[in-house]
Description:
Blueprint: E1 4-12, E2 15-20, E3 23-29, H1 31-40, E4 46-50, H2 62-71, E5 76-79, H3 85-93, E6 98-101, H4 103-107, H5 110-119, E7 124-132, E8 138-142, E9 147-148, H6 153-163, E10 167-172, H7 184-191, E11 198-201, H8 207-215, E12 221-224, H9 226-229, E13 230-231, E14 236-237
Amino acid sequence: MLPRFIPILLLKNGGLVKGVRFTAHNYVGDPMNAVRIFNEKNVDELFLLDITATAEHRAPDPAIVQQIADECYMPFGIGGGIHTVEQMRALLRAGAEKVSINTAAIENPQLIQDASREFGAQSVTVAMDVVRNWRGRYAVRSRAGSRKTNLEPVAWAQRVAELGAGEILLTSIDRDGTGQGYDLALTRAVADAVNIPVVACGGAGTTADLDTVVTEGHAAAAAAGSLFVFHGPHRAVLINYPSR
């Protein structure tokens, strides 16, 4: 099976934003325009993440998801602030193919199992945001990277797989938006420990990085934000996607 290459669109107050290491998010355009451009480029799939939803104690608006579904010709997932099966149902009915949960999965792991039984594992993505400390140890963060947990990534990945997650969206906070390449050690450790697809995210600077994280990091898919939104050394906003 060919690997997937997935643009990640970060949403904030209805706009498309991009930051570095989960901070300093700047407006870069209209997400609907990005969706239309990605349609023309035959993108494999999209992920849209509402980065302020958890802090604002809400889930993404199903009406907005419906608007995206009306424009989007490819499968897409939606995440941010989702805490209940009912919220998932509304988003899937609005046209999303899958939902992504992170904080809710950590605070209530039973939600993974409930969602998988209700909608099928293929509709449930568990996102894992990971940092590496000065000792070189990895730890999972929740609430958009702002809250520490005592979870170790490999053990947590095995747990979410057991509970019925269909895939893992694994993001290195340290590499996010830097263009320094994926954290291959982290990706490989998680991917080798589970029997579900791992989507690597955080650090892609070139199309070669996409290939490397699949071949050397053992990821089933490579996701990126900056790589598909910016172009050139001055980071001009230009929605792009590599040809096969």
